[in-house]
Design goal:
The chain has 328 residues and is of the alpha/beta class. 36% of the residues lie in helices and 13% in strands. It has two domains: 134 residues, Rossmann fold, CATH 3.40.50.720; 183 residues, Rossmann fold. The strands form two sheets. It has a seven-stranded parallel β-sheet. Bound molecules: glyoxylic acid.
């Protein structure tokens, strides 16, 4: 493929520096309006390029791939989650899929901690009270939240982001517990002083705060189910910066409404960009608009990863961040 430039179509607006570099390296079609593409537009784009650069807002399912024809060789996702892509269908069609792991780990972990602090310590309640002019001076009984230090944090999914959350949480004096398909290496457990729970049920029943850091795959859909939410302590909090689909959102809302859970900090939702209006009415939640990885530095790093993946592929090598169906 070297010689003539690879035809690349990018589905959303990317940082200026990334778009400029892509334009130098490839025959690139950008989306300067940033308007998300419809299914028809996506199928059309996929049929006219060698490499497609989608994001998590583009659903690349079997239908889009079938309509794309034979030209498309690479889907270089701008993002770490690939749950918007039917990786198996892509693989069957001989299309390589890549993502951008690693570069949004620390930003996402920072935001997880921000939510983990904000809900029990009522940071948003405090900000709102200030804005409404309700501060009448310090009071022994006003704005009381719950202590973070010494509590048990249960991390669901101990990959890169889960570990980065654990490192931060340990510094706040939280006791680290985790559930994962496999235990982390002994050195990681030792560094974090982390306790592995093979049984998610057993862990959830004992935690004060639960952080969801598992990717959304068919196996993790509603992993935090209605039944599992009922196992949690009524004083417990839940934070989700992964994907909305990992938690049964309707069941979570019911648990928050009925006081079966103390509160939630959410950055992701099951039907984005729609947010259940009942969530917006709850006093004990902090809601963010899917912004955990949103730093200028992170977006540029993600763009650089996408470029390296495309360039390596174009040069006839195996791209560094290839995603295989078996990994999901
Ligand atoms: C962000 O949510 C990502 O998956 O990159």
């Amino acid at each position: 493929m070297s010689g003539s430039k690879l035809k690349v179509i990018v589905t959303r607006k990317l940082p200026e520096a990334v778009e400029t570099r892509m334009s130098e390296l490839f025959d690139v079609e950008l989306n300067t309006s940033d308007k998300p593409m419809t299914i028809e537009e996506l199928s059309d784009a996929a049929g006219r390029c060698d490499a497609l650069v989608p994001t998590l807002t583009d659903k690349i399912d079997g239908r889009v791939l079938a309509r794309a024809g034979d030209r498309l060789r690479l889907i270089a996702q701008f993002g770490v989650g690939v749950d918007n892509i039917d990786v198996r269908s892509a693989s069957l069609r001989g299309i390589t899929v890549t993502n951008t792991p690693g570069v949004l780990t620390e930003d996402t972990a920072d935001m997880t901690l921000a939510l983990l602090l904000a809900v029990p310590r009522r940071i948003i309640d405090g900000v709102d009270a200030m804005r409404r002019g309700e501060f009448e001076g310090w009071s022994p009984t006003w704005m009381l939240g719950r202590r973070i230090y010494g509590k048990r944090l249960g991390i669901v999914g101990m990959g890169r982001i889960g570990r980065a959350v654990a490192r931060r949480a340990k510094a706040f004096g939280l006791q680290i517990h985790y559930h994962n398909r496999k235990p982390a290496p002994a050195a990681v457990e030792e560094e974090l002083g982390a306790t592995y729970w093979e049984s998610l049920d057993q862990m959830l029943a004992r935690m004060d705060i639960v952080s969801v850091n598992a990717p959304h795959t068919p196996a993790s859909f509603h992993l935090i189910s209605a039944r599992r939410l009922k196992l949690m302590k009524p004083s417990a909090y839940i934070v989700n910066t992964s994907r909305g689909e990992v938690v049964d959102e309707a069941a979570l809302i019911r648990a928050l409404e009925t006081g079966e859970l103390a509160g939630a900090g959410l950055d992701v939702y099951e039907n984005e960009p729609a947010v259940n209006p009942r969530l917006l009415k709850l006093p004990n939640v902090v809601l963010l608009p899917h912004m955990s990885s949103a730093t200028e530095e992170g977006r540029i790093d993600m763009g650089e990863k996408v470029i390296i993946n495309i360039k390596t592929f174009a040069d006839g090598h195996r791209p560094p961040d290839r995603v295989l169906p078996a990994m999901l």
